[in-house]
Design brief:
By secondary structure, the protein is of the alpha+beta class. The chain has one domain: 2-Layer Sandwich (Alpha-Beta Plaits). The protein has 4 helices and 9 strands. A hairpin with a 2-residue loop joins strand 6 and strand 7. Helices cover about 20% and strands about 25% of the residues.
Length: about 200
Amino acid sequence: MLKISGQDENQNVITQPNDSGQEGSSNQTYVLAALALGSNLGDSQTILATALTNLGAIPEIEIKSTSSWYKTKAVGPPQPDYINGCAILQVIMTPQLLLDTLLATEQQFGRVRQERWGPRSLDLDLLLYDKVILDTPNLQIPHPRMRERAFVLVPLAEIAPDWIDPVSGYAIKQLVKDVDCSDVHLLKSNSSHYP
């Protein structure tokens, strides 16, 4: 078994891949995960909506809620503004398998990683996975810059205000008060809660 840092006995423990190479949870129960979505190339709203539809079609993923879309200033080199939002997923996947699924989805939409914080057709970031704190060479949960980014916290606070960041111990609605939200503008109110 792989112990995830910061766990107590009430948190999920993720198993190593089984004999078939498939990863799985020790109890195969659904867990909640928070996802950030962004795009600043192409028809961003359509790309984001289609990416959510495609993720929701995967049997191990259920979309529970989505935030409104927000227009935000880009971080990094000069580039177009972003459209950002968040979603809450219910998944039967390990964090690594979920990350791999998100990366594959980005590639389906033409994501090419050429420069850090460069423009992109689709950016999917795994923000939170249940109460897990995970630090591996290719995945950190919670997302290491989540607490600094208004373009993440504003839409996340809309759909998960009471979710506690396991690192800081603060709820998302508290964290959003500590960031400058002046460059985050409501673009389209489409917040959805799914059955």
